Amino acid sequence: MTQFVFLPEMGCSGDMVLSALADLGAEAEIRDSLKLSLGADVSFKETSKNGVRAKMLQLSSDEKCSPLKIMELIRSAADILEFDEPQMRFAWDTFETIIEAEKSVHGIGEVHLHEVGRMDTVVDIVGATVGLTSLGAFDADIISSPIAVGKQPAPATIRILKSRKFDFYQRDIAHELCTPTGASIIVNLAHRVEKPKHTGRYREGCGGGSMDFHLPNVLRVRII
């Protein structure tokens, strides 16, 4: 069976996931599907993060959206793209995980809009679903190594990881490395958390983060 291995050694965000999947070969599918279903213009640029080649997501706009609007956009995109049951379950569970974490942190009925109130949340969730489908991930074994967080993690991110008993550790970097969206994507995708043991051949995609650090700020995704 094909295996997908996520290596969030510098954390994870939704745009890093999309960029890694694009780097693995799903770029055209992600770009065209987001344009068709959401009218979103996205592209991926080649970059280098401390000597590591990667792709980075470019989004032309990031308008604010209410959680209700995001729900409607996800449903609409799923209809247009004809998501099947596994695709719809992943997209919906990812969104609900973020919402429940934000509610828990900020109070019921008072959902904080920093993470769930932007168009890029919809782009990340729908784009990840499309990219994963294009690469055959929903029919594969998916694992993740423990997730790195920085010294300033969002409370919702920690809530998501702890509620799923997902292993994480802190890096000595004074920034948010793992976002709630990135955490939610991985906890709803990975079948288990373990350190990779495979040393043979594999394909690897690298998604670059927006910040530059003394270490390569990339999410690596391998297909074995």
Radius of gyration: 16 Å
In terms of per-residue confidence, which ranges show pLDDT below 50 for 5 or more consecutive residues? none
Strand content: 15-25%
Percent in helix = 40-55%
Main sheet strand line-up: 7-4-1-9-8
Biggest sheet layout = 5 strands, mixed
How would you explain this protein's 3D organization?
By secondary structure, the chain is α/β, with parallel strands linked by helices. It has one domain (3-223). The chain is built from seven helices and nine strands, in the order E-H-E-E-H-H-H-H-E-E-H-E-H-E-E-E. It has helices spanning 14-38, 67-81, 85-106, 113-116, 119-135, 155-163, 180-187; strands at residues 3-7, 42-49, 52-59, 141-144, 147-149, 168-170, 192-193, 203-208, 218-223. Strands 7-4-1-9-8 form a five-stranded mixed beta sheet. Strands 2-3 form a two-stranded antiparallel ribbon. A two-stranded parallel ribbon has the order 5-6. Strand 2 and strand 3 (52-59) form a beta hairpin. Helix 1 crosses helix 2 (67-81), helix 2 (67-81) packs antiparallel against helix 3 and helix 3 (85-106) runs antiparallel to helix 5. The longest helix is centred in the N-terminal third of the chain and has 25 residues, at 14-38. The radius of gyration is 16 Å and the shape is globular. 47% of the residues are buried. The model has no long low-confidence stretch (mean pLDDT 93).
